[in-house]
Design brief:
Layout: E1 6-9, H1 25-37, E2 42-46, H2 52-64, E3 69-75, H3 78-88, E4 94-101, H4 104-111, H5 115-129, E5 136-141, H6 148-161, E6 165-170, H7 177-190, E7 198-203, H8 210-219, E8 224-227, H9 241-250, H10 266-277, H11 298-306, H12 334-343, H13 351-367, H14 373-381, E9 392-400, E10 408-415, E11 418-425, H15 429-441, E12 446-454, E13 463-471, E14 474-482, H16 485-501
Parallel strand pairs: 1-2, 1-8, 2-3, 3-4, 4-5, 5-6, 6-7, 7-8
Antiparallel strand pairs: 9-10, 10-11, 12-13, 13-14
Helix pairs in contact: 1-2, 1-10, 2-3, 3-5, 5-6, 7-8, 10-14, 15-16
Binding site for Mn(2+): 14, 202, 204, 238
Domain Pyruvate carboxyltransferase: 5-267
InterPro entries: 2-IPM_HCS-like, 2-isopropylmalate_synth_dimer, AIPM/Hcit_synth_CS, Aldolase_TIM, LeuA/HCS_post-cat, LeuA_allosteric_dom_sf, LeuA_bact_synth, PYR_CT
Amino acid sequence: MNNELIIFDTTLRDGEQSPGASMTRDEKLRIARQLERMRVNVIEAGFAAASNGDFESVRSIAETIKTSTVCSLARANENDIRRAGEAIAPAVSGRIHTFIATSPIHMEKKLRMSPDQVVEQAVKAIGWAKEYTGDIEFSAEDAGRSELDFLCRIFEAVIRAGATTINVPDTVGYNLPQQFAHTIDQLIERVPGADKVVWSVHCHNDLGLAVANSLAAVQAGARQVECTINGLGERAGNAALEEIVMTVRTRRDIFDCDTRIDTTQIVPASKLVSGITGFPVQPNKAIVGANAFSHESGIHQDGVLKHRETYEIMRAEDVGWGANKLVLGKHSGRNAFRSRLEELGIAIASEAHLNTAFARFKELADKKHEIFDEDLQALMSDEAVTPAVEHFRLLSSCFHSETGETPRAKLTLSVGGQEAKAESEGSGPVDAAFKAIEQVAASGTELLLYSVNAITTGTDAQGEVTVRLARNGKVVNGQGADTDIVVASAKAYLNALNKLHSNVDKLNPQGRGV
């Protein structure tokens, strides 16, 4: 049996289906570069047929990534598959991932197709995909609730038609580990041609079992796991890449396979995805949480000091903790700044873009003595460095908060290039700032989330604010960072408004997948 476990990352596709997690093309490229640096085998770059914006994102990633396979999802219809094929065409290594539902409830209620029609459509889809690539993955959507005999039938048909990877998704997170392992074991044993394909799993976390189910499937013979950074994904999310990789790596006594992942890139990837999407990582999250390698108990501390392995089964530095060092300050030059951004996988589109970013870096360095990688990530995630999408921009601000007095905010904004002033009271300075902005913007949005996180330690740390706004079914996240948390809040609100105002074709991605 193959002893390499293939890591198929779907952060840019399934992860983006989290409400508010949609990303710009440039943000997707940054994450894709980090995934390549981490040596991910397959990057599912998006759903090319979902929108023109998604098509362009997939194509840009296909043009950029050289050492990972770039994949596009496609429903089992001709239009989807041809769009996917066109999008991955520039890739050094490209894959089409096509799917159709196979559970009785999906076939009857959603597809309104008979089992015979579903098999026929799946075979046709493989034929269309073969016109573009020899690397074809087939997924049986809702396989976790499908009949085993029917799964055997459809998988035999698509393998005969030319599929090279067979994915078994637990689309709604319904399975238990022993049950899911039995399904994989039976499929590998019963499906003719099973030895000619890679068996894959894609588990959702509705019952908190995505990682457990995936690992049980690996023990049963699966050799590809579909997962996301930080477990990002719709509803309760997907199997977390970092947990899959480190479990297999740590428990080599149990697993007869391993991944090619550079684990020192895991924490940087986690922080990048968290910063771009605005989804903070909980402190007690395995591997990448801030407390994952912290010890409060005196007994634990004593044990670790005497011998690390008494309470640590992994080394923090092996997953990237402690790797980020102070590299820049107020005296650093443009070349050092550019070089560090490149090391972090942040692309600079032009000299003008670099000049704008460097000026903002200098402003930050005047406020904050120590500049960490996390500060640079936050600075570059702020879309103030891309003036083309800034319909709303903060020019100046004045906030007043005093015991016994009603907080006030006075803002000067640029709106479509025209200066506008607004002043408002609120229950606090942040509330007053948001109300002042709305006096000018009149956006008609609903505030779904307001979240504040400290980017680094110390009283001079930048505060990173996430604001989630909804309007007419579109949900977007805005981010802002500043050493003044009220200014960061105003920036985040304006950033979200800019995303809603922009002509990006897909602000909130498709809601269906595997």
